[in-house]
Design goal:
Layout: H1 2-15, H2 21-74, E1 78-79, E2 87-94, E3 97-106, E4 109-114, E5 120-123, E6 132-135, E7 143-150, E8 160-167
Antiparallel strand pairs: 1-2, 2-3, 3-4, 4-5, 6-7, 7-8
């Protein structure tokens, strides 16, 4: 009986085949394809998150700058003659005190300076420095149109635009 069981197990072993190198190569290849698809999906999700985050930060900066423009311009008594599409100078009130405010766009950077204090950067990714338009004109502006166009730094193919018309309430009639 022992010789018969030895023959049976030897025969069983001959009937069993191991994994061939071709089967192993195909299996590894399929696993690598699945891992590649998963990594590509993860990278795509990260790009989407970065895009949404950049857009959100840019919009927050633009809204903050627009709120400052609106507050300063509504209280302004008039626009100075040197105002251009890239520069706006006005006498207004800041925290209840009379002040001279200068907004300047240059090289894609928009700054705000109050009196002789250092200028603070409001936005640093402007597409164009032409931010201000005056209606009917600089010397008699009743409405200032502020147009901010920003290109987020990690989304160079995206442009975000925010426009507002600010009516000057304290404009002097002189």
């Amino acid at each position: 009986m022992s010789s018969r069981s030895t023959r049976t197990s030897a025969a069983d072993r001959r009937g069993q085949r191991g994994t061939s190198i071709i089967e192993l190569t195909i299996t590894v290849g399929l696993v690598l394809v699945v891992i590649g698809v998963m990594l590509d999906s993860l990278a795509s999700a990260q790009r989407g998150e970065r895009y949404a985050s950049d857009r959100s930060v840019a919009l927050d900066e633009m809204r903050s700058a627009m709120a400052r423009f609106t507050k300063d311009l509504r209280q302004a008594s008039g626009i100075d003659e040197g105002a251009t599409a890239a520069t706006l100078q006005a006498d207004t009130y800041v925290q209840g005190t009379a002040a001279h405010v200068v907004y300047a766009a240059s090289g894609g950077v928009l700054t705000r300076q109050v009196n002789s204090s250092p200028a603070e950067v409001l936005i640093d990714d402007l597409v164009t420095d032409d931010v201000f338009a005056y209606d009917p004109g600089v010397d008699s502006a009743e409405v200032v149109v502020v147009r901010l166009e920003v290109r987020p730094p990690t989304s160079p193919d995206t442009t975000i635009e925010l426009t507002s018309e600010v009516r000057m309430r304290n404009r002097s009639s002189a």
